[in-house]
Design brief:
Layout (H helix, E strand, L loop, with lengths): L2 E16 L5 E16 L3 E5 L6 H8 L6 E6 L2 E2 L5 H10 E4 L13 H11 L5 H14 L16 H13 L5 E5 L7 H18 L2 E6 L2 H7 L2 E6 L2 E7 H6 L4 H8 L40 H5 L4 E5 L2 E4 L1 H4 L7
Parallel strand pairs: 3-8, 3-9, 6-7, 7-8
Antiparallel strand pairs: 1-2, 1-4, 4-5, 9-10, 10-12, 11-12
Helix pairs in contact: 3-5, 5-6
The chain binds adenosine-5'-diphosphate (ADP), iron/sulfur cluster and magnesium ion.
Amino acid sequence: MQKILEIENLSVNYPVSSGLFNETKEYIHALNHVSLDIYKGEVLGLVGESGCGKSTLGKAVLRLITPEGRVLFENKNIMDFDKKEIKAFRKNAQLIFQNPFSSLNPRMTIKEILREPLVVHGIRDKKIIDEKIKNILNMTGLNEETLTRYPHEFSGGQRQRIAIARALILRPEFLVADEPVSALDVSIQAQIVKLLLELKEKMQLTILFVSHDLGVVKYISDRIAVMYLGEIVEIAPAEELFKNPKHPYTKALISAVPTVGEKRNIESIKLEGDLPSPKNPPRACKFHTRCPYAMEICKQESPKNIAFSKNHFAKCHLYDTGILREN
Ligand SMILES: Nc1ncnc2c1ncn2[C@@H]1O[C@H](COP(=O)(O)OP(=O)(O)O)[C@@H](O)[C@H]1O
Ligand code: SF4
Ligand SMILES: [Mg+2]
């Protein structure tokens, strides 16, 4: 399989000031040495509790923030791009956010919103613009009457369709969808997830789909990466992750997803307490403060990335001691 994105040893530390006179400089360790490949045409789900660094990773791979480490997009390091290359990259790699209302300019009509990215990227011919707008409306299930109206006239689901249309009108290859359905009613969530899957097929998109909700990620992802305090603790094909989760944190997230009728064969783990502060994260295995299996070694040494199959990896000491190897 061809890689579209290679993320190598990516870290982001946000500086923050505190104290009465802002005299204390601290860092929020939002992303810690993350390495990950994304393959052409796949949906990679990225899941973890709020605050664990998902949006930071999404922004870093689009060069909206500057991380340490390397991100190769189609074999080129995006950190080395010159102005022209950045512009081409912006056309090719797009972002949609959780809140479709705040991301759409309230003073622009839908037509102006959809036209803007085309004009920015040098498309001036009115006929071509109209053609592209008509085409993307079709693909996103919107009609032409939409064009003269303003964002506030639409429901949350419709606004997210408009945001998707705007992100895809330039025909990018890669899309970061950051909690795209989290602000929507459950009944609407399924429609938008379905739309993204359809568009992925039609446009041969690659999608990094970010969500705190494993139940949502399950339906759209080919593979799922589980993140905890800035680290990927497990990654596997979606079905494999649900059937055969290895990391206790993954098991806890799965335990929290409601089941309808079906019975799960994995042990249930209840997640206790809050996410520790990324300013001062626990050392070694960062999950040790909440893990029901924590052992002495978990507080002393970071677990290695263990391969369970060609594309299933997890970081947990339970497996290097062999205790639960076959579990
Ligand atoms: N611009 C920023 N400046 C300082 N801290 C930030 C900034 N953006 C995010 N953070 C912090 O980094 C951590 C990870 O945030 P984020 O990537 O948004 O997580 P998620 O998307 O998983 O909720 C959080 O503790 C958050 O408060
Ligand atoms: S390394 Fe230890 S603390 Fe971390 S998840 Fe595994 S058993 Fe739990
Ligand atoms: Mg986020």
